[in-house]
Write a structure and sequence with these properties.
mainly alpha, Growth Hormone, Chain: A, globular, transport, MFS_trans_sf, Sugar_transporter_CS, H+-coupled_symporters
């Protein structure tokens, strides 16, 4: 038993299940789903737009570089913004476990939407020189800090409100909202590149999607402030059993689960940003597909991806988290390289079908991971455990994925390099998940 529970009147030793969820109304759960969806949607809409408009952004902020160097610098800024995410995971985890999930989520969406709006206001390199990419970097770091609290908090929020036998389905709302944000980003990027000239895109067109963040963020914050915190957290707070230093307790008492979680997230980190964010750039810059066709293929794949996500959530509720996550890793190990080889055919129909296949494979991981991670840690450190493991893996391997993919292609002269990177990530995740325990049929624990 940890030090925090050794005082008189503390909770008894050993795992204690969370209270029954029958008192939560359907209306409350619907509002929880809406609040979790819109907040995460706004967060990843920005990441989508940045990734899909990377070629244009590279021209605006690094005009003196050759195209590939400018693209590398743009993705380097994307990766650097992820370095702050582990720090953000510690801070947001502390707030979420100590003060409350709702407080952390309401703050994170406000910071993210404000920072995203500011990107639209940054002058280009031709106007203020080196200060343009410097300002872009600063704002990206602020966004990275904000995003580090969103995915983990929304997942914990949904799992703690969900019926016990549907936690996987409820938690799947988080990756579904992420994919919806990517979908809107893809649609907007495709529409803008189709309707506007290259000069108009570089002058003002690329700024339009970032301007949408402010109103969407304010709507999301308003919805979140109208909700109560989760029943299990309110029970801990009422009994004064919240951990005073959740991150310290996490590393002291749950370090094995933390290591397993970091490894399990690896495939999701690399797969998400290669398949859903970097892919349009890969198709247009590396394979020579037109920008409009690249966005269209990604958009079609994203629509099917959202549907697959909820199916995966239901499968994980029925068959268990481990079986579905292991299936995802095996599928990536076996099928990724052949799938990328088919992308090289240049046939649009083949490219769309391959992207749908890769997206379906990723949903086996992405749709299961939120409930898997939330169930792995007890209520007292759930937000911290999820946030630290998820953001550490994403900082090291997710944010760097577009940069690494571009760099590996340049170093090996092989368009299949990103595929082998995905295979390596799948092997690590397979080992980590295999060493973890199944939790889907167990009640949520307080400690």
């Amino acid at each position: 038993m940890s030090n925090e529970t050794s005082s008189p009147g503390s909770i008894v030793s050993g795992p204690r299940p969370a209270p029954a969820d029958s008192a939560v109304s359907k209306e409350t759960r619907r509002r929880v789903i809406a609040a979790s969806f819109i907040g995460n949607f706004v967060e990843w809409f920005d990441y989508a737009v940045y990734g899909y408009l990377a070629v244009t952004i590279a021209t605006v902020f690094f005009p003196e570089s050759d195209p590939q160097t400018g693209l590398l610098l743009t993705f380097a800024l994307f990766a650097i913004s992820f370095l702050v995410r582990p720090l953000g995971g510690f801070i947001w985890g502390h707030i979420g476990d100590r003060v409350g999930r709702r407080t952390a989520l309401s703050l994170s969406i406000l910071i993210m939407s404000g920072a995203t709006f500011c990107i639209a206001l940054i002058p280009g390199y031709d106007t203020i020189g080196i200060w343009a990419p410097v300002l872009l970097l600063i704002i990206r770091v602020v966004q990275g800090f904000s995003a580090s609290g969103e995915y983990a908090g929304a997942s914990a929020f949904l799992v703690e409100y969900a019926p016990a036998n549907r936690r996987g389905l409820y938690a799947a709302v988080v990756p579904a909202s992420t994919a919806a944000g990517l979908l809107l980003g893809s649609l907007m990027a495709g529409l803008l590149t189709t309707l506007l000239s290259t000069e108009a895109m570089q002058s003002w067109g690329w700024r339009l999607p970032f301007l949408l963040a402010a109103p969407m963020g304010l709507i999301g914050r308003y919805i979140r402030t109208k909700l109560e915190d989760t029943p299990v957290f309110r029970e801990l707070a009422a009994e004064d059993h919240a951990v005073k230093a959740p991150v310290s307790s996490l590393f002291r008492n749950h370090w094995r689960q933390l290591l397993q979680a970091v490894g399990a997230v690896l495939l999701n980190a690399v797969g998400f940003y290669v398949i859903l964010s970097y892919m349009p750039t890969y198709l247009s810059s590396e394979l020579g597909l037109g920008e409009t066709e690249s966005f269209l293929a990604t958009t079609i794949a994203l629509i099917t991806y959202i549907g697959f996500i909820f199916l995966t959530g239901m499968l994980s509720d029925r068959y268990g988290r481990k079986k579905v996550l292991i299936s995802a890793s095996v599928a990536f190990i076996v099928l990724t390289v052949p799938a990328f080889a088919l992308l090289g055919t240049g046939n649009f129909l083949v490219i769309v079908l391959v992207q749908i296949l890769l997206g379906a494979m990723l949903t086996l991981n992405d749709g299961t991971l939120p409930s898997f991670l939330a169930e792995m840690f007890p209520t007292r450190v759930r937000y911290s455990g999820f946030a630290v493991s998820f953001n550490l893996s994403n900082a090291l391997f997710g944010g760097t994925a577009p940069f690494m993919a571009t760099l590996l292609i340049a170093a090996t002269a092989s368009d299949l390099a990103p595929a082998w990177y995905l295979v390596a990530a799948a092997v690590v995740s397979l080992i980590a998940v295999s060493l973890s325990r199944e939790t889907c049929k167990e009640p949520l624990r307080h400690e």
